[in-house]
Structure formats: C-alpha cells, structure tokens
Amino acid sequence: MFSGIVEATATVVDIRKEQDNVHFTLECPFAQELHIDQSVAHNGVCLTVVSQNGNRYTVTAIQETLRRTNLGDLRVGDEVNVERSMLMNGRLDGHIVQGHVDLAARCTQVVEAEGSWEFTFAYDIQPEQVRRGYFCVDKGSVTVNGVSLTVCEPTASSFKVCIIPYTYAHTNFHAIQPGTRVNIEFDILGKYVARLQEIGQDSRK
Asked: CB–CB of 91/4 below 8 Å?
C-alpha cells in the first residue's frame, strides 16, 4: 500500500526483455536501502525488487502490466516517480493507493497558471467500468503516475489536476506534455461504494 506522495524520481538505466517480461534497472537515491522482495511504486505501478546493487535495483513487469500501463513506453534515461510502501505508523499525507493501475490516460493540455500548472487527462472508459467505480469526482482523489492529486472539472472521460511548483520540479510532471501517456489509479473507496451498491441491487432482485 502507498500514499501517492512520491519520494524521488529514479532514472531508467537498463531495459531487458525476457520472453513476455521486461526487466527495468533503475538508479535512485534510496536504492541502497532496498532489499529483494520489497515493493516499490513506479509511476504508480507496484513492482517487486528482484535484485539490488549499490544505487541501482531491478524490477520485472509482466505482459499484463505492460499492456495496462505506460511502463512499456519507458526508454533508458527516462525519469520514473518512485515511492516505497507506506509505513503503517506514519501520516497518510496523500490517500490510499494500492499501486494497481487501472488504465493509461493521455495528456491533452498543459496550461501554466501564474506559477502553477493545469494538466488535463483523457481516457477511454466503458460504462461497465464506470459502474464498478472507475471514475473521478470533483475534489476527489486520483493517482497520476503515482502522485496523489485532487480532481478538478471531471467529465465522463477526462479530468484536470493542478500541479504546484514543488511537485512539478520533484516528479516527472515536468516531462509530461500533450500526447504523453500516464498511469491512472482511481480511488479505491469509490470502487468499494460502487461494489456495495451493485451487491445491494442484486440482493433485491
């Protein structure tokens, strides 16, 4: 479990394909503190550390993860937002993030707004997914590339977020531009509410 408060950006230093899997080796400030089998969120995707060497470590993404997220777009030299799993005795500064990305969205607009930035993201969604809680609500929470953010002006298939200078500088948001694909995880609380409503309706039939 994560909070959506990015600890650092890691740099992709090697990408190796093995059958349908892809091994990513990254370099980041806290790599020496990692150990094998530890979970780390990468652009919001929970992946397991499979090897560690100095300030570098390696994780593996399976085909389903590559299909559903933007990890398959990564190239050597790219920045990735990283966060270690949340300490249960710490403050929850963001919101509950599972690291289970729901879909990839595409940036459609970036507007500088007197020191901050407004990003608009659009995605393809099916009515059945909406009924299962895959949607945004105004002033609700959403995770974009692993960053916990507040939703603005949601529609059925898009939303805006506002990025302050600190987040812009210390995550890979400064590299996002129109056309960039990002990973989206909708709020787990909304999914539970949607599921409870579905069960309630089924029980009344």
From this structure: no
